[in-house]
Amino acid sequence: MLAGGLATLIGGAQLLVRGAGRLALGFGISPLVVGLTVVAFGTSSPELAVSVQSAWSGQVDLALGNVVGSNIFNVLLILGASALLAPLVVSLQVIRQEVPIMIAASLWLLGVTLDGGLSRGEGLLFVAGLAAYTTFLVVQSRRTMPAPETGNGPPSTGWDAKLPGQLLLVGAGLVLLVAGSNWLVEAAVSLARQFGISELVIGLTIIAAGTSLPEVATSLLATLRGERDIAVGNVVGSCIFNLLGVLGVSALAAPVSLPVAPSLAAFDMPVMIAVAIACLPVFFTGRTIARWEGGVFLGYYLAYTSYLILDAREHDLLTTYTVAMRWVVMPLTILTLAVVLNRELKARRR
Fold first, then answer.
1. Distance of CA 235 to the CA centre of its chain
2. Would you tell me how many other CB atoms lie within 10 Å of the CB of residue 318?
């Protein structure tokens, strides 16, 4: 199931990236906005299915852990791996608009769950916020999209140059992505439970990674194809959709308010917010995600996952590991980002 799910994901991602790239020109919408909406929402459909089903059946730790873990996974692992393949050029719109919206949505989630739960009314507000954001993006893109230049964008010939072919590609890609994710998650959860890992940790790691594999395949393939706006937009758009759409619909589907585990509010949500905020200086320095920055992102994801595993197993190394991360790794990272940002500001002034 693991191998079959991975193969299905790769095939689905190829179809989705190809269809979405052609849809951009057909509707006069920029590839960035297609990545932020069609591709991002489509590849987040596994998160939606898993979280809604978990909330409906009362497995709330899986529902919330899946979203928080997926957002951490999206930024640290997917952007990190994509940047290692090829340095990613980041659009000014992402820096000035989408990343601040992602940060605001993350803070909004933490704020509304300080009382220990996410109510249906708050879920409805999240869904309304997503609808408003999507409408604004499409209208903004139609107003600012320049006329396509000869030689740019996907080719205008072939069976997929027209709308029916493009919709067929996107639809087939989404079906394969969802099917592949389901197989991977089912196999991974079955394996994890044999090791006695809690539902929250499973949601934050195995399920979060499994349901985010469509984003992995899509962003990596988009990077290899040169569609780097789609690669970055897919990740940021998926994070926004997870927070507003997946959690909003999950709260509406749950029989009662979704309770939030104390450890999730005290540790994992702040990590998610910190990861979102860290995008700003990284994206701002040269408007690129360099290979070394991608390596740092990957390193932090490994560190975060290692902490969760040590904590779940109540390992003797947990205290030493926590002290090293808090007093050595984190200060060095902050210092490095500050130095790089200062150099960038000086270079711009010159």
1. 4
2. 16
- For tokens 């090791």, what's the residue? 195
288 backbone dihedrals φ, ψ, rounded to 5°: -140, 155
Q: For tokens 């195995």, what's the residue?
A: 206
**Closest C-alpha among 211, 175, 184 to residue 47:** 211
User: What percent of the chain is predicted at pLDDT more than 70?
Assistant: 93
Distance CA 320, CA 313 (A): 15
Quickly state the pLDDT bin for 144 (edges 50, 70, 90).
Answer: low
CA distance 189 to 210: 9
Out of 1.20.1420.30, 1.10.3720.10, 2.60.40.180, 2.40.170.20, which CATH number does the structure's domain 2-145+168-315 have? Answer: 1.20.1420.30
Q: DSSP assignment, residue 116? A: S
CA torsion, points 129, 131, 134, 138, in degrees to nearest 10?
-130
Q: What is the pLDDT of residues 268-315, one digit of tens each?
A: 898 899 889 888 888 877 678 888 888 989 988 998 888 888 887 777
Question: Which residues lie below 8 Å from residue 236, measured CB to CB, with a gap of 6+?
Answer: 36, 40, 94, 98, 99, 102, 279
DSSP output for 303-325: HHHHHHHHHHHT-TTHHHHHHHI
* Averaged pLDDT, 255-263: 85
- pTM (whole model) above 0.90: no
